[in-house]
């Protein structure tokens, strides 16, 4: 295998696959690495909003019927409920449906798109060390078998526990970890729940700054809990309390699995030397609901296109990438962060009814905000640049 590459992408989840597709489609040579072999399991609720579906259509040329036929989309619902341990807070219909996907299948399919566009994919390759390089020194990755690879451009798409991020000079690990939420999720047979689950159910009040969920699927139900831990209660004990509250028989519950969720820690500057971070590696997750698949794909697209432009006309990719992030992504994440603290504090001070009052007051606009038709920044109409009509993805 060649040691030196124009571009290496570390991590082949939605962020890495979208970056790889954007580069390969523009004819660039790109090596994609992942420690896993696909399809690989990924702990995730699998909820897609309107903007995620539009991005899949526009960038991957995937359609809802095609994804449904392939078993990627397993359930569709335009309804929701929000509950507390004591009562039903609110429920209603959304102007656009939520689509629920099988993450393992979606990720394998997105990676396949990148590979078919010409990206080289190396699976079972764990990166153990990274040097982002700088100036005339290329970025360097060391693999578990001792192989050292060099790249003119490195995209770190290696998820929440990113090795690439940890190599960034000046990266404030303490702050990043402070807003890394523990999350536990189990997949259950629908019969394990006392009632059938038809629409996403959110539960607030089990954890400060976080929530529990019960998400439907074709032949399974996903039950999860995430949030910023406060106090000394063990997170797995909170989760078991949540299962008890849902009247789920503990014998029906598989061994608990957890994964950290970036929850309000998006990096201001995700560029260092010749490396840039996308998706969970850069903390790009919307901090009210923990929606990360869209932000992974979107930041992957932006980084891939920035590196492609750099290779074509010699521009530095870092400023291209961060300019697009600051215009389209950062205001959403900041607005969502403001809103979640407002809501969580109001619930603590006034009680959970403050949440139902808030949701019911501007329900259509809020629903549009969740789906990405409106911005988390003051509910302005949101125009995603990858959706601008008439422009090929590479020119937007
Ligand atoms: C419990 C839970 C529920 C969630 N539910 C939802 C939801 O319903 N909707 C939603 O939009 N988001 C949800 N999210 C968030 C979403 O899963 C993430 O934001 C999304 O997976 C980020 O994609 P990514 O490509 O950045 O990272 P990942 O999908 O984590 O991909 C990273 C890839 O990098 C590889 N990798 C990691 N380290 C290395 C290494 N050292 N060497 C080589 N390869 C490596 C991994 O194998 C993996 O394939 C949820 C998250 C959790 C934890």
TrEMBL record:
One of its GO terms (molecular function) is oxidoreductase activity, acting on the CH-CH group of donors, NAD or NADP as acceptor. Residues 5-199 form the FAD-binding domain. Pfam families: FAD_binding_3. Coiled coil: none annotated. It comes from the Bacteria. NCBIfam families: GG-red-SF. This is Geranylgeranyl reductase. It comes from Pseudodesulfovibrio aespoeensis (strain ATCC 700646 / DSM 10631 / Aspo-2).
